[in-house]
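W.,

You were right to be curious about this one. When I first looked at the sequence I had no strong expectations either way, so I just let the prediction run and decided to look at it fresh. Below is the sequence, 408 residues in total, followed by the output.
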Amino acid sequence: MSHIVIIGAGECGARAAFALRERNFEGQITLVGAEEHLPYERPPLSKDALLNGLEPKLVSDAARYADAGIDVLTGLSVESIDPAGKTARLSDGQILAYDRLLLTTGARPRPFPGLSGANHRIRTLRTHGDAVAIRASLQPGAHLAIIGGGFIGLELAATARKLGAKVTLLEGLPRILSRGVPEEIAAVVAARHQAEGVGILCGVKIQSLDESRDDAKVLLEDGRVIAADLIVVGIGAIPNVELARDAGLAIDNGIAVDEHLQTSAPDIFAAGDCCSFPLTHYDGRRVRLEAWRNAQDQGTLAAANLLGAAEAVSAVPWFWSDQYDLTLQIAGLADGATQAVWRHVAEDAVILFHLDADGRLIAASGIGPGNSVARDIRLAEMMIAARVRPDPVALAAPGTKLKTLLAA
C-alpha cells in the first residue's frame, strides 16, 4: 500500500493522518479539505474563539504536517470518488489515485425550513468563518435570537451574555436539551441561563424568519414577533454523505460502516460525524455521534484499520459542554433507562446514573462547576464499558468510592 487519501480536513481527518505515521505507515498521505484553514478544533467556536475573537485553534501547525510527510490540500473540495478505479476527483481537476480512502466529511448545520440563499442577519455556526461573522454582531446591547435549545445554541447564549448582548432562545419542544440530556440536568442549565438574563421560550412554533437591512425577525405562529439584530439557527446537523452516496456506498443515518469503520466498499473507511456505526456496548445499536472526542477516537481507530488492524469500536460515547461556570458531562446513552439514581458529588454538583431494567448502568449525566463531576463521570464510563450492575444504594452514597463498584 503506497497512498492513503483522507477526504475531510477536520479533527478526525487530521488525527487519522498523524495516527498513520505513529503506526509507521511509510507511504504517501494526502489530506483534502474544502476550507482555507489547516484542520482546527470546532468546540472553541461557540466559546473562547467567539469570546476573544481568536484565530482558529489548529490541530497542528504547518511545520508538523511537513515534518510528518502529510500533504494537506486546503481550499479544495472533492467532486467525486470512483471506488472501482480507486480515484478521487478534486474541484481543481486533479485526480488522486489511492490504495485506501478515509471519508471524514463531517456534518453541516441543518437549515431552517424554507430558508435559502445568502442571509446576513440569519446565520448558522459551524466554521471559523461563521464564528467571525457572528462575533461582529455581538456588541454590548445587541439582541441575539437563537433558534434551538441544544448544546450549540446554549453555549452561544452563554458567550453572547458575556459579551453584553441580550439573548432570547427559542425551542420548539417543551424543554431545552431534550436530546440525550435528562430533564433534571436540563432544568439546572435552564435556571443558570435565566439567572444570567437569557430569555428562554420553549414550546414555541415558528412560522417564518425574515431579515432586512436593519434587523431580523422571528414570526411565531401565535402572532408574536421577536425582532433581533441577529438570528442564529442551531437545530442540529446533517451528515455530509453526498460523495459516498453518489459513489454507491451504503447510507444509514450517515455513511454506514461496520464495527471496524469499513464502508460497503472494501477499501473505503469512514469516521467521525459523517458515519453511523454499530455500538457494541448497546447490543449493536447503530448510532451516529457528533462529538469532539468521538472524532479523535475514530480518527485513531480508522488509521489502525486502514492498515489492517481490524480493531472494533469500543469507546463509550462521551459529550461535554461548558456554559458560564458549569460543565456538563454525559457518558453513555440513556435511551432505555428505567431508573435514575442521584449522587450528590458536592453541594452544587450532581450526577444521575441511568440503569436499565436489568440493573445495568448504561449512562451517567453530571453537572457542576469546573471539573467537579469529571472524575466520577470517567469512572462511570469504565463501569458502562464493563457492563456492571451496581447496587443503587451504594451508587447514590457519596461516601462510596465508585472504583469499588467496577466489579459489580
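Here's what jumped out at me. Residues 292-306 form the longest helix (15 residues). And, maybe more interesting for your project: The mean pLDDT is 95.

Coffee later to discuss?

I.
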